Amino acid sequence: MNTNNLRAGVLGGLAGGLVFGMMMALMGMLPMIAGLVGSSSALVGFLVHLVISALIGLGFAVVLGGRVHSYSSGAVLGTLYGALWWVLGPLLLMPLMMGMGPQFASALSSPNLMSLLGHLIFGVLLGTTFAALTARNAPRPSVTS
To answer: How far is the C-alpha of 123 from the C-alpha of 60, rounded, in Å?
Structure first.
């Protein structure tokens, strides 16, 4: 695996995480994220969210990075990846970590739909940032006259 792609994945995850984190702050969701590490601080929640975002971005680089060849493919793959993490994160893993069961029954509730929107925005930013950062490292075609 190319270290530039790994770096691009982490930075893409952080780019998406910053925007999604601001959305979560506006919705008052960061204390709940902080609860994953035994805190109720919004700042701790934001930092936990950024760590998770960087790790998810790293996963994108490993699993899908080789398929990103343009901004559009980055955006599409990022959107799909964000949707997958909406299912895995707030509907499955996070509730299980907090002692609740999976939340599939409430997937179409207003808070979960806002979470879906945030995950989709996260994915688009992750994928397009990844595309931007890896494009400048891509080999340029040679021009012959």
So the answer is: 9
pLDDT at 92 over 70: yes
Contacts of 5-8 with CB under 8 Å at 24 or more apart are 5/61, 5/65, 5/66, 5/130, 5/134, 6/58, 6/61, 6/62, 7/133, 8/61, 8/65, 8/129, 8/130, 8/133, 8/134
Distance CA 8, CA 137 (A): 11
Grade residue 66 by pLDDT with cuts at 50, 70 and 90: very high
Q: Nearest CA to 107 among 124, 122, 88?
A: 88
Rounded (5°) CA angle 133-4-65: 70
**Residue owning tokens 């999976």:** 102
Looking at the whole model, is its pTM more than 0.85?
A: yes
Taking the C-alpha atoms of residue 113 and residue 80, their distance in angstroms, rounded to an integer, is: 15
**Do the beta carbons of residue 20 and residue 118 sit within 8 Å?**
yes
For 107-124, give one letter per residue: b (16+ CB within 10 A) or e: eeeeebeebbebbbbbbb
pLDDT at 121: 98
| Percentage of the chain modeled with pLDDT above 70 | 92
